[in-house]
UniProtKB/TrEMBL annotation:
The gene is ribD. GO terms for biological process: riboflavin biosynthetic process. It comes from Undibacterium parvum. Keywords: Hydrolase, Metal-binding, Multifunctional enzyme, NADP, Oxidoreductase, Riboflavin biosynthesis, Zinc. This is Riboflavin biosynthesis protein RibD. Its cofactor is Zn(2+). The lineage of its organism: Bacteria, Pseudomonadati, Pseudomonadota, Betaproteobacteria, Burkholderiales. NADP(+) binds at A151, T193, D197, S219, G289, A290, K291, L292, N293, G294, A295. Converts 2,5-diamino-6-(ribosylamino)-4(3h)-pyrimidinone 5'-phosphate into 5-amino-6-(ribosylamino)-2,4(1h,3h)-pyrimidinedione 5'-phosphate. InterPro entries: APOBEC/CMP_deaminase_Zn-bd, CMP_dCMP_dom, Cytidine_deaminase-like, DHFR-like_dom_sf, Eubact_RibD, RibD_C, RibDG_C, Riboflavin_Biosynth_HTPR.
């Protein structure tokens, strides 16, 4: 199963919104077929592994298939993998965990058992879930897994009091940030960041296709049609205003304008998360300023913080999250440190809301 997980990690971002799955077919203790999920619409991991075994001249009858996700049972963009395994004469299937897709959800394992295949499920389940954490979150809640990236000095400052904020962390941490952007289906930022930094909000230095979709939260449509992040298409401006001239100006440069207004005339953040889920965004990467960061946390929209801390002290200056003032400590937002590591000279913390 560890090998199957390694194979799953070879699947590219082009599989999205499909989960990345790996499959190893083992006979007499040796791997005879290996596969991983192909770009969306193409073969799933199991079919690839069966093809690989055939191409290598192996007979898979009676062999064991280790799969990082329950084999599918439905006719989606491709026919069911469970049937492919049955037809090939596989003797045993070991799956890491059940598929959360309601179209599958145990039916794949049932199909295999009914066909007389011996089935076990649960091996390295946690690792398998982590690999597709966004897919599971979306299937279970209709909303994406939201990862918020921030970079600050050791004393939690993102800028000097005069606003100077360029490159608080070193090159290694910035490159690592692109790795996290690359695994996201979409990147969200706010108009404050766009006006201050004019970011491109794309992935650089890693060869991926397609690029993550870009979303800018801009309640009153203050974004310029010349903003860099609108340049190469794939950007959506999320607003709370119906002003038609501003909207058509943005549309004329290829941007999509999405109106999502709550009762007090602001963008409805929870509704935005549901909309992203409907648009099959599994993982959302947020890079925004303290205001939008704070609002998203306050609305319970954030699952995980990706924090880079540089070994510097800035003293006074802007913080990371604008949150309402608390009066008692038990009101504090609670997280658990999921992973802590060093990236270049920075510390990287992945912290999840408890
Ligand atoms: C598998 N093996 O490698 C993957 C699976 O639209 P389709 O036909 O590509 O099906 C997509 C669904 O199949 C997806 O939502 C998930 O439930 C499952 N993904 N299943 O047996 C795979 N990637
Ligand atoms: Zn399948």
């Amino acid at each position: 199963m560890r090998m199957a997980l390694e194979l799953a990690s070879r699947a590219t971002q082009a599989t999205s919104p499909n989960p990345k799955v790996g499959c190893v077919i083992v006979k007499h203790g040796s791997p005879i077929g290996e596969g991983w999920t192909q770009p969306v619409g193409q073969a799933h991991a199991e079919v690839q592994a069966l093809r690989d075994a055939a191409a290598r001249g192996h007979d898979v009858r009676g062999a064991t298939a280790y799969v990082t996700l329950e084999p599918c049972s439905h006719f989606g963009r491709t026919p069911p993998c469970a049937n492919a395994l049955i037809d090939a004469g596989i003797g045993r299937v070991v799956a890491a965990l059940q598929d959360a897709n309601p179209r599958v959800a145990g039916r794949g394992l049932d199909l295999l058992r009914t066909a007389g295949i011996s089935v076990d499920c649960g091996l390295l389940a946690e690792q398998a879930r982590e690999m597709n954490i966004g897919f599971f979150k979306r299937m279970e809640t209709g909303r994406p897994w939201v990862r918020m990236k921030v970079a600050a000095s050791l004393d939690g400052r993102t800028a000097l009091p005069n606003g100077n904020s360029q490159w608080i962390t070193g090159l290694d941490a910035r490159q690592d940030g692109h790795f996290w952007r690359a695994r996201a289906d979409a990147i969200l930022t706010g108009i404050g960041t766009v006006l201050a930094d004019d970011p491109q909000m794309n992935v650089r230095g890693i060869n991926i296709s397609p690029q993550p979709r870009k979303f800018v939260l801009d309640s009153n449509l203050r974004i310029s049609t010349a903003a860099k992040l609108l340049q190469h298409g794939g950007a959506t401006v999320v607003c709370a205003t119906a002003e038609i001239e501003k909207r058509s100006a943005l549309q004329s440069v290829g941007a999509e304008v999405l109106l999502l207004r709550d009762q007090v005339g602001r963008v409805d953040l929870k509704e935005l998360m549901l909309e992203l889920g409907r648009r099959q965004v599994n993982e959302l990467h947020v890079e925004a300023g303290a205001k939008l960061n704070g609002a998203l946390i306050e609305q319970g929209c954030v699952d995980e913080l990706l924090v880079y801390l540089a070994p510097k002290l800035l003293g006074d200056g802007a913080g990371l999250f604008d949150l309402p003032e608390l009066s008692t400590l038990d009101q504090a937002k609670k997280l658990i440190f999921h992973e802590v590591s060093k990236v270049g000279d920075a510390i990287r913390i992945l912290a999840r809301f408890a």
